[in-house]
Amino acid sequence: MEMKDSLTESGVIFISVFKWFFLATCIGALVGASTYIFLELLEWGYTLRGDTSYYFLLMPVAFFISALLIDLFAREARGYGTEKIIEAVHRTSGRIKARVVPVKLIATVITIVSGGSAGKVGPAAQIGAGLTSMLASLVGFNDVDRKKLVICGISAGFASVFGAPVAGAIFGIEVLFVGGMMYDVLLPSFVAGIVGFQVANYLGVSYTHHALDFVPIFTESFFIIVALSGVFFGLCSFVFIEFMNWTKARISSIKLWVPYKGFIGGCVLVVLAMIFSEDFLGVGDSVVERALIGGEIFFGAFLIKMLFTSITFGSGGTGGIISPIFFIGATAGVFFANILGLNPGTFAAIGIVSLLAGAANTPITASIMAVELFGPEIGSYAAVACIISFLMTGHRSIFPSQVLALRKSASFNVELGKEVESIRPHFEKRSRSFIDIIIKFFRAMTTAETFDKDKPETKNDTQGKDEDDKKRS
Q1: 195 CB-near residues (< 8 Å, 6+ apart)
Q2: What does DSSP say about strands 403-404 and 426-427: parallel, antiparallel, or unpaired?
Q3: H or E element, residue 281
Q4: How far apart are CA 365 and CA 357, in angstroms?
Q5: Burial category of 28 from C-beta neighbours within 10 Å (exposed 0-12, middle 13-18, buried 19 and up)
Q6: pTM for the full model?
Q7: What pLDDT is attached to residue 391?
């Protein structure tokens, strides 16, 4: 009977593996193809724009049109795409309306081509997840299977845009929860990520990977500097998240029709671009490339990019948030390196993945991505910085619909199982905190040393010691 049960179990698992391998392959191919179409449309938009000087003067009109399309046809397409997928998985079992796909596609192209500070991963993932949700409805999958398929869409979208299939696969199952991973979707997520990457690459999407030329031999001092960089990047993530939330709240409080807000936001960005530079507009890949090869970067570029990005999304623009995170991380890394006289390319690479780990709460994804994009030599250093950045960000996220599954510190009382946007951490004074123990230890050491120095050794003390030694012997 036991042998029969074991054979039955193995047979059922084999069928399940075959089922999800097949479905994930289909999803990966679908998302890889849709990503290719999206990126081709984006390139067509760049070609149409040409090398026209001051193209960004059209931003007010472009933002107005983008916000109008979203407001009239699919409000779920507003903001950055990955957040909307997370929200759909947690709140509607992965159901995404079909009209989101064309609206997100068109609105994102308009936003980015005109100069809006947004990225490509979120739209690619949301478009792919929308197609996946439509397929699930067409075939008649239940809610559990639908959620798995939509998660595969996230993985395939990330992998097919950045050319990082393993990191993309992990991203899909890590980004839904803070401190938790959905292992039941591990196989289909990996298959979808790898297939999505391969299909997009086959169709013509090209990827740029930077194997770093300079990685120092391990020393204690450099390891400490890497750890300190993790603290710095975590604080940058903290500032970015809070500033994004603050800007969104301020703009939302303005009683105006959303397309009008888009027009005003576009005007503000035009003025800022004239004051600072066009480098802070659009995806910003050229600036990231420059940072990685050690080129000249404006001193406070990472803070200015935060400003451009928050205004873009706060005023009604749409797109992805991962590429701005990469820009901020790369330029913050150069800033950190220049302050300490270090190699800027190395810390630009560490900054890219550390900002992703901190802002998106995805340290495993970011650590793997460091190896895929920059080579294995940087992997161990980047992993340390990523984990520290993840912890330093605290109980907040650039994706407010993430569900909290972990307390980052036992000193804070937070309710697990709730979305990050509803979490209000409360500090708890513990009876014996680590700091208290350290203070008591040093006080005890100081007291003991003072007592030994002040107390002279008398004859009686010497006799007492001799008697004790005789007793012991």
Answers
A1: 24, 25, 27, 28, 29, 32, 156
A2: unpaired
A3: none
A4: 7
A5: buried
A6: 0.88
A7: 94
Tokens standing for 74? 């699919």
What is the C-alpha to C-alpha distance for residues 426 and 435, in angstroms, rounded to an integer? Answer: 18
Separation of alpha carbons 141 and 353, rounded Å: 36
3 domain-assigned: no
Report which DSSP code applies to 411.
T
Distances (CA, A) of 357 to 197, 230, 337, 398: 22, 10, 19, 11
CATH code of the domain covering residue 347: 1.10.3080.10
The domain of 46 spans 15-203
pLDDT at position 459 is 47
In a domain, 36, yes or no: yes
At 37, the pLDDT band (50, 70, 90 cuts) reads very high
Instruction: Report d(CA 111, CA 118) in Å as an integer.
Output: 8
> DSSP of 419-466, one letter per residue?
BGGG---EE---TT-HHHHHHHHHHHHHHHHHHHHHS---HHHHHHHH
> What CA–CA distance (Å, rounded) separates 256 from 261?
7
Which tokens belong to 288?
């990231």
User: How far is it, in rounded angstroms, from Cα 383 to Cα 353?
Assistant: 9
- Does 111 have pLDDT greater than 90? yes
Strand partners, 279: none
d(CA 415, CA 403): 10
Packing angle between helix 121-139 and helix 322-340, nearest 10 degrees?
A: 150
Rounded Cα distance, 347 and 354, in Å? 10
Q: Does residue 193 carry a pLDDT above 70? A: yes
Mean pLDDT, range 7-14, rounded to an integer = 79
**Other C-beta atoms lying within 10 Å of the C-beta of residue 71:** 16
Rounded to whole angstroms, the Cα distance separating 223 from 186 reads 32
**Same domain membership, residue 343 and residue 274:** yes
CA distance 62 to 107: 9
Tens of pLDDT, residue by residue over 392-426, are 998 899 999 999 988 888 777 888 888 888 877 77
Tokens of 115: 């100069």
Distance CA 230, CA 224 (A): 10
When divided into structural domains, the chain yields a total of 2
H or E element in which residue 79 lies = strand 79-80
Residue with tokens 């097949």: 22
Do residue 250 and residue 327 come from a single domain? yes
